[in-house]
Model the fold of this input.
Amino acid sequence: MIHFENVGMRYGMGSEVLKDISFNLKPGSLHFLTGPSGAGKTSLLKLMYLAHRPSRGKITMFREDMAGAARKDLPKFRRKIGVVFQDFRLLDHLTAVENVALPLWIAGGKGAVIEEHVEELLTWVGLKGRMKARPPTLSGGEKQRVAIARAVIKRPDLLLADEPTGNVDPAIAKRIMHLFVELNKLGTTTVIATHDMGLVEEVKADRLHLSDGILQLIKAGQSLPETTSFDPAEFETTSLDQNEYGPLGYDGEDDQ
Amino acid sequence: MTKAIHFLPDEETHEATRLLPYVMAVMVYLSALALMGSMMLNKGFGDMTESLSNRLTIQITTADAEMRNAQVDEVTALLRKTPGIDYVRKLNDVEIEKLLEPWLGKGNVTDDLPVPAILDVTVSRDLTLNLDAVRGMLAQVSDNIHLDDHQQWLGRFLRLMDMVEYTALGILLLVVLATICIVIFGTKAGMAENREIIAVMHHLGAQDSMIARAYQSRFMKYGLKGGIIGLVLAFITLVSLIYLSRDLAEGLVRIPELPVVEIAVLLVIPFLAALISMLTARYTVLQGLGRMV
Done:
């Protein structure tokens, strides 16, 4: 699904924020992306959601070379990706329903079908009574749920989430994680950037750990090794269904 | 949910381009005035040159009234026999007095004023008249007989007409260029204001053409709205000017008529303004987006 090979990235003429990143994410896998603030998590996600081009190296996604892809071809790949931004990035003048409907509308969906899908999903994330509300009138948690609904409404092939549970209470966080895990079970490759180690421990998925722009793979259940060196040849990930930890230890119970 | 999602905020909240329709209105107002003025003058000049193109004026300035009348009769008889001349008529005292009134004032043309006799001659359109021969013939009657074929005056008039038309065209071109620049600035300002929205739309998979469509449709509305306001104001101005100038310039200058059919063509101006705005906005947006990732 995603293959990075010796990828480096810098902003303008600055120093590299990502250095020699190499990894391979199999289709249907779920990974957490962890690391201290400023380690380059958001930059790595930007490369994955095609908002930035690498300064060097090779990125292959959906079996296509992304580093050299023509600009006009990017929209069709972006439509396969769902992104939950850390700052939500909702359109303030649109209602919650319209915000969530945007990806379907962009892809050419029809009005009635869009409405049905969107309302069903917003109800599921607990926003039934807030469908016509606009983002400035929503709480942080509500905005986050709208942003998540917008990212998953199209059942994307790849879901990227930047701190998706950062602004919600534990019950909602658990519910959101359940949504991600269910989507992942349906085949969506998922990468979740988070600081919430409790969540990481609970879901038991592999971790991509970034520190000073350098990436390490940490298998589920393992802790961060003392040395930062790693062998890229071993750096291939597995899907949750195939990994050694078996079924997820997450019951998806509704705690609301 | 509406069929289409308007991902750009409403015009009213759009600080960068809120005033654009009114700027467009000014531009259309100026260009419509330039065009209408040019059309009116063209029509007026055209009527005037047409009315003079087959006419000759003969002035007999002999001071002695008796002799002058005799020369009038003689010249009239000669001209009527000349091939190529259709009609000869002596202007009566009332007509001459009317011609002098704008300069001398009403009632100031007195009997003791040495007023020349004037013959109005209509030349055939089918035959060519040898004006030198006619001049020679008149000179044999008296040195006080002057023939004016209006060519010198008409030549200057036509040059003036050309100049007015080129000036109007120049003004129009400048206004169109200024309009295009304003739309480019407005579009760029609008894009800068909605930078975040455009980025989100890109991340969600929107193509450049989809974003460009939203802008071009918005700027088309601005152009149309500004165009209609500007054209209506231009019509009001023109009609007011004609009305006022008729009172002021009565007798001195002939105010051209409003060429209704030609002026009706100006109704396309708002649509042209809309088209120019739309195409300029589309080009600007696509250029701007092309520089993004």
About this structure: The radius of gyration of chain A is 18 Å. Strands of chain A lie at 2-10, 16-25, 30-34, 56-61, 64-65, 81-84, 158-162, 189-193, 206-211, 214-218. Residues 1-80+156-256 of chain A form a domain with the Rossmann fold fold (CATH 3.40.50.300). Residues 170-185 of chain A form the longest helix (16 residues).
